[in-house]
Amino acid sequence: MTTAITGASGQLGRLVVARLRDQARAEPLVALVRSPTKAADLGITVREADYARPQTLDTAVAGVDTLLLISSSEVGQRAVQHRNVIEAAKRAKVKRIVYTSLLHADTSTLSLAVEHRDTESALKASGIAHTILRNGWYTENYTGSIAGALAGGAFIGSAGEGRISSAARADYAEAAAAVLTSAGHDGKTYELAGDASYTLGELAAEISRQCGKTIPYRNLPEADYAAALSGFGLPVALAQAIAGWDFGASRGALFDDGRQLSRLIGRPTTPLSSVVAAALG
Fold it and tell me: Count of CB atoms within 10 A of residue 173's CB?
């Protein structure tokens, strides 16, 4: 039974591949990537698969039984790109698709949710057995800003007192690997998030504790946060999107206390302190 992972050379994809390889399973494992040269170090079969170039997809998924569809990084183009993959999977008679969606995608107010809802609908209409992994925020989405916070003397955002149930990227990768390698998941949707939640003020306090320097959290109006991000060199549209997601967090869009992620992986999710320590490492 051949399992293929799209976006296998990306941050999440690499972790999933590593997890599956660690299990030393006999079944073939295939990396589907846009640039095969970037995946040569994965140690598994590599095939070209560009979400935006349908002509690459039929060959990529030929003979695949189970497909992990990791959502595209190209916000605004995801719906079409994901449908391209699903249509190719139908033609190739792929038996099962596991898709990485967004936490509470069906009700989320985040702009990201629209394309995930579209993809979930396409999966349901495809007739292919599928599992939806609604991933919450990666803790690394925030700890990636620690260097800037240390340089600027404050951690900034627009999340207010909103609680964020994030988990380490490796936790989500482990959950994907668990679903890919076990039965009983067809037709299920999992809301995946960290066991514990925190505010950005609490994140700033943890950074301060670990670095020995007071780094306060400074909450900004959404427009001001977008302007600050743009001033740091981010494209205006991306800066506005990030600020919008942060504002969504202030209204609970990144909170979940169902603990489905820790149940899937059979252990507690990685603590915030551990991810902060790794970022400061």
Answer: 24
